Amino acid sequence: MILFSDFISQVCAEITHNKNETNSIYQYAVTLPPSLQTALPVTDWPGWLNGQTCYPQFYWQHRDGTDTAAVCGELCRFTHISEAQAVLDTLPEQSNIRIWGLNSWQFDTLSSATPEQGTGGSYLFIPRAELRCVQGNIQFLVNIDSRRPVQETVNFLRSLRGDVIPPVLETRVISAEHQPDKAGWMQLVRGAVTAISGGLMEKVVTARKTVLRLSSPVRPLAFMQASRDCNHHCYHYMLATAPDNAFMASPPERLYLRTGAQLCTEALAGTVAGDPDDARAEAAARWLLADKKNVHENSVVVDDICQRLEGAVNSLKVSDATVIRLRKVQHLYRTITATLYAPRDSDCLQRLQPTAAVAGLPRTAALAFLRKNEPFERNWYAGSGGWCSPSQSEFAVSLRCAQIHGSQIDLYAGAGIVAGSDPQAEWNEIENKAAGLRTLLEGEL
To answer: Which helix (H) or strand (E) holds 431?
Structure first.
C-alpha cells in the first residue's frame, strides 16, 4: 500500500527529472494507484478538497456521473473566455489540459471577475493539480508551465494532503429575504406580461434572489455535497476562492457539449411541479407535454438557439420533446445537435449565452427589461460553469445555484414569462425550483 505522501514524492521526482523543455504549458498524468483509489474514492473527492488549504478549488460532477473532477491551485487565470481561447489555440489538439471555471451571464465587458462579482467576465483557470475520473479511469494530473521554475510545482504538490475530511452541513436558516418580495414579484410579472402583450418581446425570464442568513458559517463543499447526494440527474459544480466564499450550482441543463466539431445543446424550458408518487408524476408529465403555454415556452428557446447558431454550423437536428423528472420539478426537454464550421469555445459561448431559457426573446429587448426592472445583479446566476480543452468542452447553465459568503447564502430561481403567464403560478414555480437547495438547510429531503 502506497501512502499519498509517497505517491506525491514519486510524482515530484518524475516531473523534476523529466522536465519538458518546450516553452509552453504541459501536463503530467499518472493513473492513481489502486490503494489510493480505495483511500480516495470518487464519491469522497469533496472531502479531499475540504482537506486542502490552497485556492481556488473547483469541483465538477457530470449529471450522468461519467466525469468527475476535484481541482485546486491556479497555474494561470483568465477573466474572459476570449483569453482562455487564446491559450487553447496554442495547445496541441490531443492535449488533455482543461480550463475550468465560471462565466457570468452576460459577456458585456472584459472586466475582471471574482466569485462575488461575475458581471461581464469569467473566472476561468488552469489548475495546478487535478483528480479526474472519466469513464472509470482515475488519474492524478499536474499542469506545469515550463517557463517557470519546476520547484514551484514541487512545492505546491508537497503542500497537498491525502486524507479525506468529510464536509459536514451543520447550520440552519435564521431568516430569509426575497428580492423582489411577493408583492414586487406580482408587479414584475404583470409588467412583463403587459410588455409582451404590447409586442415589445415574446418572452422574458424574471428571477428572484433569496438571501438566507444562517446560524453559523456554512462550508461550501458541505452544501454542494448535500445537493449532489439528493439532487440526482443534475450537474454539480463549485468554485471556491476561500474556505467561506464560493459559488455552487446543481443545474439539470447543459449549455453545450463540444466534441471536436460536433456540438450538442438543449432546450430545458416549460415546468411543472414534481411529485414523489410515480403515478401523479407521470400524469403531470403528460399534462406538461400537452400544455400549450409550456410547449410554446420550450419552442421559443429551441427557435432562439437555432437562430443563434446560423452561420456557425452546416447542419442542425432537433429532437422531439420529452420530460425530465427532478426532485422538485419536471421540465420539457429537447436536444439540438449540429456540426460546427470552426470549433471555437469563445464563439460557442458568446452565441449561446444567455439563452432564451434564462433571458428571453428577443434577447436585446428582454435584457433591457431585466436591467430596468429586476432588483438585483445576477452575476454568476444564469451564466455557465464547466470546462474547455482543445478537443472537447462542456458547460452547464448556472441555475439552481447559490452564492455562499460565510453565514449568508444567496439563492436564485427564475421563471419564463410569456403571454398568458399567471403571477401566482410563476411564484409557485420559483418556490419549487429554489426548494431544491433551500430544503437542504431545513431538513426536508
So the answer is: helix 423-438
Task: Give bridge partners of residue 176 from the DSSP assignment.
Answer: 212
Bridge partners, 402 (sequence order) = 248, 411
* Residues with catalytic function: 203, 253
What is the amino acid identity at position 87? V
pLDDT digit string, tens, across residues 3-60: 999 999 999 999 999 877 677 899 999 999 999 999 999 999 999 999 999 999 999 9
Distance separating alpha carbons of residues 234 and 164, to the nearest angstrom:
24
Helices (H) and strands (E) in the chain, counts: 12, 22
Residues 69, 45: Cα–Cα separation, whole Å? 8
426 is in an annotated binding site: no
Write the CB contacts of 181 (distance below 8 Å, at least 6 apart in sequence): none
Residue 174: CA count within 13 A, CB half-sphere: 10
User: Residues spanned by CATH 3.60.120.10 within the chain?
Assistant: 1-159
CA dist list (Å): 139 to 19, 43, 56, 282: 20, 15, 20, 41
Residue 416 contacts residue 354 (beta carbons within 8 Å): no
Residue 234 CB burial class (10 angstroms; 0-12, 13-18, ≥19): buried
Q: With a threshold of 0.90, does the pTM exceed it? A: yes
Q: ∠ CA 85-90-93 to the nearest 5 degrees? A: 90
Per CATH, the architecture of 1-159 is what? 4-Layer Sandwich (3.60)
429 is in an annotated binding site: yes
